[in-house]
Design goal:
Keywords: Cell membrane, Membrane, Transmembrane, Transmembrane helix, Transport. It is found in: Cell membrane. The chain is mainly α and 81 residues long. The protein has a domain at 1-38. Helices cover 62% and strands 7% of the residues. The chain has three helices and two strands; from the N terminus they run H-E-E-H-H. The protein has helices at 12-38, 56-62, 65-80; strands at 41-43, 50-52.
Length: 81
């Protein structure tokens, strides 16, 4: 029968990967969530006041001909190279 040299070692892999998960959350997932949250607001030029606008920012973005043109150009460029 196999004898455990290190009692309680079944949690060791989780302990070893915990710093990596913390770094991923702090530097990737956290800022991504914060940017999604802030995209539902509009702020004054100096950031002294924020106003909730909901999906208006996204509606304005996706109805902009400049944005749609940039998406088309990006896909054409990516398909070519």
């Amino acid at each position: 029968m196999h004898e455990d040299r290190f009692p309680g070692h079944k949690f060791l892999p989780y302990l070893l990967i915990a710093p990596s998960i913390a770094v991923i959350f702090i530097f990737l997932i956290g800022p991504f969530g914060q940017s999604i949250y802030k995209s539902f607001f509009v702020s004054t030029p100096f950031g002294t006041r924020t106003i909730y606008v909901g999906l208006r920012n996204y509606i304005r973005l996706f109805s902009s001909p400049d944005y749609l043109n940039s998406v088309v150009v990006t896909f054409k460029f990516a398909a070519r190279y």
